[in-house]
Amino acid sequence: MSPLPGELSRSYGSCDYDVRHNISAFGLYQVPFHSSHALLRQVLGGWAISETAFFHTGLPFTILSQPYTANGNGVFQSSGPQFARRVPGVPIYSKTSVSGVTVAGTRQWINPDAFVSVVDPSTGACTGGDSPTHCQFGNSGRNTVRGPHFADSDIYITKNFKLREGLTLRFDTQMFNAFNHANFALPSNVEAGVPDGLIPARFGTLQSTISPPTGLLGVGLGGDSSPRMIAFQGRIEF
Q1: pLDDT grade, residue 5 (50/70/90)?
Q2: Rounded to 10 degrees, what is the CA torsion of 228, 229, 234, 238?
Q3: For 131-145, what is the mean pLDDT?
Q4: 147 pLDDT above the threshold of 60
Q5: With contact defined as beta carbons under 8 Å apart, do 140 and 60 qualify?
Q6: What is the DSSP annotation of 200-223?
Q7: Residue 50: which H helix or E strand, with range?
Q8: In whole angstroms, what is the distance from residue 189 CA to residue 106 CA?
């Protein structure tokens, strides 16, 4: 829906799942070692390392004004986009903690000073004063900001022990999210504040992590989370 009838251009923007850059890399390296000495072949031979890496840029989301219903007579109701107003010249992103906004257990991502709610929900007045200049729909637009990037890397280290002809013992060390990199979900509180007034707690903050595409229990089984997980596996191949 458009915030104003006949002005669908205000809702033009990136789709919710737009990923501008996406890289997937896979590699396998078998350590070359040849020796006529049986013990050296057993200890130093048969090693291999493989790696899987994923990287993509952040997903887009929208910064909104705070709603003001006034028992059904307010400027903004609950339906349709209620874009915030962009403050010119102020950086959109900031990782600096803000008192009263960045609460314990969260990380600041969006600069609270970069956006302003069009309506002051405490009074119902237009932010900056009730005038044609200030009483306008927000200009921040749909999906104009982006969340953090996603990066994940898995490493496998394999050692093969040749027991006899046609019989091999294989031992694997599997490291999921090997570098223990935290990947955060999009901010859930995206309603902008009022200058010299209330800025909602957790506005523009990163509050939770998302699961990686690979894991110890497989994808979508509910047992994996984003911290590094290490597993050891042994098997007989014949």
Answers
A1: low
A2: -80
A3: 83
A4: yes
A5: no
A6: -TTTTEE--B---SS-TT-TTSS-
A7: strand 47-56
A8: 12
| Three-state secondary-structure class, residue 160 | strand
What local confidence, expressed as pLDDT, does residue 166 receive? 85
Instruction: Say how far residue 144 (Cα) sits from the centre of its chain.
Output: 16
CA distance 14 to 12: 7
- Average pLDDT score, the chain: 83
Residue 155: which of 71, 230, 75 has the closest Cα?
A: 230
Location of structure tokens 């637009």? 141
Q: Which residues pair with 236 in a beta bridge?
A: 169
CA angle 66, 144, 190 (to 5 degrees): 30
- The pLDDT-based confidence of 2 (bands split at 50, 70, 90) is very low
Q: How far apart are CA 173 and CA 159, in angstroms?
A: 9
